[in-house]
Structures are given as C-alpha cells and as structure tokens.
Amino acid sequence: MASFSLENLIQAVIDGNAVKVREEVKRALAAGIEPARIITDGFVAAMDVVGERFERNEIYVTDLIITARAMHTGLKELKPLMLAGKVQPVGRAIVGTVQGDIHDIGKNLLAIMLEASGFEVIDLGVNVAPSTFVEAVIKHRPDVLCLSALLSSTRKGMEETITALREAGWRDKVKVVVGGTPLNEKIAARMGADGYAPDATAAIPLIKSLIGADRKRRAVLAPATLDLFFGEGSLEDLQRAFTRMTGLHLVMVDAAGRPLTSLGGFLECSRHCHLLKENPARAQDVTTLQGNFKEAFIYRCHAGLVEISYPLANEDGTVGAVLCGHCLLRGDPDPADLKAAVPVLSLTDLEAVCGLLSFVSGQIMQLNTVLLVNKELEDQQASFIHFLKRQHQLEQALKDAELKALQSQVNPHFLFNSLNTVARLALLEGAANTEKMVRALARLMRYSLYQVKGTVSLAEEIAAVRDYLFIQETRFSDRVRSRVEVEEAAMQARLPCMVLQPLVENAIIHGLEPKEEGGEITVSARLVGDQVRVEIRDDGVGIPPEVKKAIFDLEVRRSGKGQVSGLGIVNVYRRLQHHFGSNCALDVASMPGKGTCVQLTFPYTVD
User: Which residues form the B12-binding N-terminal domain (predicted)?
Assistant: First the structure.
C-alpha cells in the first residue's frame, strides 16, 4: 500500500482523461489507499498543477472545465465512501448563483474543486433568492457561503444576500466569498464579503485560509464559554469540595492561563515557585513525571513540588485547563522556606487523583458542550424568528405594493374607456384615421394593463406591436416605415407579455428618429428547430461600441455618470431568463451608421 503511486491519477486529471481517472481511482482503492489520501495527494495535487498553469495563461477556461469534469468522474467513485463517513470533510460549503443570473459554469467548477479538496458541498443552483441562501445557511450551518455572478446587473443580488444574512443574525457565523466577472476586491469589500476570488482555482486557498483562521479564532474565544456553565459561586464550591476530598487545591484557567476563580490555597505555593524561579541558586528545573496519569501532565515546579495540569479541549481546540496542586511524593525532601502545609502522596494516590480529575474534567466538557449547543439553538431560534419577522414585513410590503398597483390602474382604466368613447365619436363624425389611431392606442393600453403578469401567444404580442407601429407611422408620417413577417407555424408560441414592444420602441426612438431621412424597421419571427427566433432590425444610426457595452452594465446608470439607452433590452432579457431560464438568448448586433439587429431566441411552447 505504501508503495502505490498516485502519479498516474494526477496525470489523468491534468490531461482531462475521465475514463483514466475512474480507472486509477478504482486501482487506488483496490490497493488499499484511503479515500482521504486519494483526494489530498491525488485530486488536490493535480488541481494545484492545473491552477498554476491557468494563472500562467498556459491553459484556458475550457481546459479548466475539462480537467474539473474528469476529476468529478473520479469523485463519483469516492462519494459512497464519503457518505459512509470514511472521509472526514474538511469543511462545508454552500454555493449558488445569485438571483437574476442563470450562469453556472464558474459555480459548477468551484463546487467540483471544493469537493475534490475534501469539502461537503451544498449546491443551490442558479437564480437563487437571498431568502433561499439564508434558509440554507440556517439549515446546513456551513463554514463558507460562495456567491457567484456573471452579469454586473445581478451584482446587487450579492449585496442583498449579505444584508439578509445580517438581518437574520447569521452574518458573523459564516464566511462569505464572492466571485465573478463584474467584481473586484474593492467591490467585494464594499458589499461586506469576507473575500473575493476571480476564479475557482483562486477560491480554494482563500476559502481554506478564511475558515482556518475562523476556527482558530473560535478556539481562542471558546474559554469564555466555560463560565457560562458555572453559576455564581459554583466554581468555588467545586474547589472547596475537591480540597476536602483530596487535600489538594484546584484552579480552573482559560486557554490563555487566566484564572476563572480566585487562586485560594493554590496561591501560596505558586508565589513560592515564582520567588524561587527568580533565584536561580535555589531553584530547581521543571521536570515531568511518568506514570498512568489519565492524560494529565504531571511535573515538578521550581520548588520541587508536584503540580497537575489536565487539559480541557474540544474539537475546536483547547479551551482551558484544570490545575491541581501542590503536593510531594513519599520520599521527597521538604522544600526550604515553604510556609504552607503540603500533602504527601504515594504514586498510587497521585494516579487516583488524576483519575478523579479525568472524570471531573470530562463531565465539565460534556456539560459545557450541552450548554453551548443549547445556546446555539437559542441563537438560531432568535435569528430565525427575526428572519420570519423580516419575511412578514416583506410580504406586507408586497401586499401594499399590489394594492397601490391596483389603485394605479383606476386612472388608466378611466382613460382607456375615454379613448373608446373618443374613437366612437370620431367614427360618427367621419374621421376614419382618427378613429383607427385612437382605437390602436386603446388596444395597446388595455394589452399592457391586463396581461403583464402572464404569458401570451406570439400572435397576441405581434398584434400589439402592429398597433404600436401604426401609431408611430402616423406620428412620423413617411419617416418611419415598417414590415412584419411572421411564420404562421410560430404564431402560437408562448412568451412573456410586452417583450417585443420595448425593443421596437428602442429601434424607433434611438435608431430611426435621430436619422434625418428616417428609415425602416422589420419585425420577423420563425421556427428554427424547437426554438423561436425573433428579429427586430432597423437601418438607423446604430449603437456606438461603448454604449452597447454599457447597456448591460447597470452601474453606469446607478452612478449617474451618463445617459445610457437600452434599459428596455436589459428588462426584456431578465424577463426571458425568469421564464425560460438558460434556454433563451438575446443578442444585439449593431454598427454605427448601419443599423441594429436585436435577436431573441426561446423555446417553442404552447398551452
């Protein structure tokens, strides 16, 4: 077993050879290699090499994905053993892409590399709401929460998630690491994250560093929890009872050596030891004793007296110690100038005292653990109650918003009825064009008012676009011309309401209107396999490259540093994503002076 090499496994991962990786994992297991070693000495070692090559630009994201998938194939072989408890996870991580973003390549890569590094991973998927992240943190109690985003417009989802954690009372109980294209260290720090990683390879050492420091911090702070177990005066009662039983003095200290009670009779001997330490001519070296002492540390102090130290420790580290002393062993000479009486014990007696200390210390740690668990449960309950209250407030705010939305429809509804009346009057007076214009406006208003929440057929959406185009052609006379070309087979496809009109409006206002001689806009739709492809094309002024780039960057609009058109495009894309997930696309092709083409692609579905 000791001679078995994992070099072939490492190379197979680096090469991205999934079949070879699976074979090498099976060979390693058959040779008796522990799953934990396969992960640390095999997968982690391989990904260290891959990460270094990626940082030196010797390989690219595509290569990184291939190697990660190959490694994931090997992890599947180890997963049953991991679930059976044969591999102790080094930590627990929750990963997810924030609300409004459906990109998952970076998130998936991080999840795979975390698993390869020995983490238990809970993957929440994409488009994850802040409340869902909070619920997962409360349920799973991870060491780290990893938030991913690709679109700058969804960066706000990260801030909202961190804020939700803080409001729920869980922000200080989990490390938050953010990553993605629209971020950097300054932005991550500003939103309140603990760390930022530009890619999955950089995230692994960062996460290990963060949770390692956090566990060390918890271990240092843990001694303060000891006095939560003992009520007022109970430590002194324990000291007195122990002294009556054994004749020795007992002191409990925290991990830093600070006494949790008065030193009592322990003080006189301790002061004597300290004085002798300052007088090298009379002091003895501290020496340790060997025997069956139940994990206690037995040593002689500078005065030659026997002192016992028994550690109090849990999985987070040492939280304190029980000190017991002082005494002499039979046959020891009396120390000079010691005023306090010192018990004399046999080696058997000393071993019995250590056994008693072992029992007392074990009971203290068990009861202290119970207390800590109860306190954590109380904190969780309080946090969850706070979280539920916050959710109730949000639900109430949503109800208020819905009520205001209903109230806001009253005036448009009155206007819609008035427009119909005007249209009838125009028809009676013989103003046919006026009647057509008013009726088109009324239909468009009714369509936008009553169907925003649901999906509609492409035929209904095209009808609304025709009404809008008729109004604009009437308004601009011969400066705006339009054509609508839709395949009959695509007419019943379902899509969110009012996604085409904003794009047509952008084409007219920003493309054709600034052009002195005007131009033409064409709306077309057809089936391509099981997808619907819609194009809104104009021969207008086009979009400058810097404006096209800024269209999908909401930070420009937030900062107020300039006017950027295209908010309708972002809104349309978000609504398509919300309905179709990753099975949709929006593409903008434009050249200044040559016009613009916006192309939508989404699945063909019918009721």
Answer: 1-90
